[in-house]
Design goal:
The chain is an alpha/beta fold. It contains ten helices and eleven strands. Helix 8 packs across helix 9.
Length: about 350
């Protein structure tokens, strides 16, 4: 079903039904056992720093089970580990993983379109070289905080080509591994290629990265088959109809639904404005109906009581803040804004709507 073309109320109902089904699936015994088995076989904790663009869906592009990859999103994949909140969140994540005896791999991503520069990253004004330079700055910041020996924390720069959802791994000395240049028959060669590309990466970490690369080869083949059948055109253009603010949106495993803004930048209004501009452009271009869009704020919590109550206040703040920005800068668009505020039980992935 092409949900993008449905009336806004039907889209919202569909969305929360999707969230509910995702939570039920995540909590099922089979899914829990699959995650436990996967993490036992691949213990490296993998976090992904990526753009808010709804096309950047790394779990889908790598055929990775839900709940394995930890996402961090912001406009253009722009991050600064000097930002107080972001630095604290990342440091806490690393400390928690290391205390469990796990290494941490950061996938620091940029994206572009090989078919049309205008389908690239709007956050960097479609300048891929500028995006690459920024990801390398983030890598240097990760090394500054966690060390450059890479024995425990490894920052890996990765490109993501959105026409085919293909990963490009940036290695040492400027070498790259472009998965779009390989085929399914090259799966057996991935391990030696990766060892040559990333000789300073711990062997266990390379072994845990390999399933993502193998999954990406499978996914690229599926995308090319969609293109052959003329089923891919709309998936590579912006068709987002919702702005998600906060964290806990891994149930959005369908491409091009949402622009996801993480609560990290001290200037939170900037990515919200840009996201609203993209929504308005999508309406003007007829890529989505002009009857409305959704602003959804969500904040995860780990424990009931104080932690959940704080998440509730934070989610309400984010929702009101974003709505005020959109009303001030896009008053016409704001008239078509539907708002929902929620908290997410991180352990169960249960999305809980808050009343006004």
């Amino acid at each position: 079903m092409d949900i993008h073309s449905k009336p806004i109320e039907q889209r919202i109902d569909w969305l929360f039904d999707l969230a509910g089904r995702h939570g039920e699936s995540y909590r099922s015994p089979e899914a829990w056992l699959a995650r436990e088995r996967y993490l036992a076989e691949h213990p490296t904790a993998i976090a992904v720093l990526k753009c808010m663009d709804g096309r950047i869906n790394i779990p889908v592009a790598t055929n990775t089970p839900t709940g394995i990859l930890m996402p961090f999103r912001n406009l253009g994949g722009m991050f600064d580990l000097g930002w107080p909140h972001l630095g604290e969140v990342l440091a806490h994540h690393v400390q928690r993983m290391v205390s469990d005896g796990r290494r941490v791999l950061f996938l620091i991503t940029y994206h572009w379109s090989k078919g049309d520069p205008a389908r690239g990253c709007a956050g960097f004004a479609y300048d891929t070289e500028a995006a690459i330079a920024h990801t390398k700055e983030i890598r240097s910041q990760v090394e500054h905080i966690f060390g450059s020996g890479h024995g425990t924390v490894y920052p890996l720069v990765c490109g993501f080509e959105t026409d085919e959802d293909a990963l490009v791994i940036q290695g040492v000395d400027g070498q790259i591994l472009d998965l779009a240049s390989l085929g399914a028959w090259d799966v057996a060669t991935l391990e030696p290629r990766l060892a040559a590309l990333l000789p300073d990466m711990p062997a266990q970490m390379r072994a845990d990265l390999l399933p993502l690369l193998a999954g990406n080869l499978e996914h690229i083949a599926q995308v090319r088959e969609q293109v052959r059948r003329s089923e891919r055109t709309l998936d590579i253009e912006h068709r987002e109809w919702m702005i998600c603010l906060g964290r806990g949106f891994d149930f959005l495993h369908t491409p091009n639904l949402a622009l996801i803004v993480g609560p990290y930048s001290p200037d939170l209004a900037d990515p919200i404005r840009k996201a609203a501009g993209i929504i308005e452009n999508n309406m003007s271009a007829g890529r989505i109906p002009a009857d409305g869009f959704l602003l959804l704020a969500s904040v995860p919590y780990d424990e009931i009581g104080v932690d959940r109550s704080r998440a509730e206040l934070k989610s309400r703040f984010l929702s009101g803040f974003a709505a005020d920005v959109i009303r001030a800068d896009y008053p016409t668009l704001a008239e078509r804004m539907a708002m929902r505020t929620a908290v997410l039980d991180w352990r169960s992935r249960n999305l809980e709507l808050l009343t006004c």
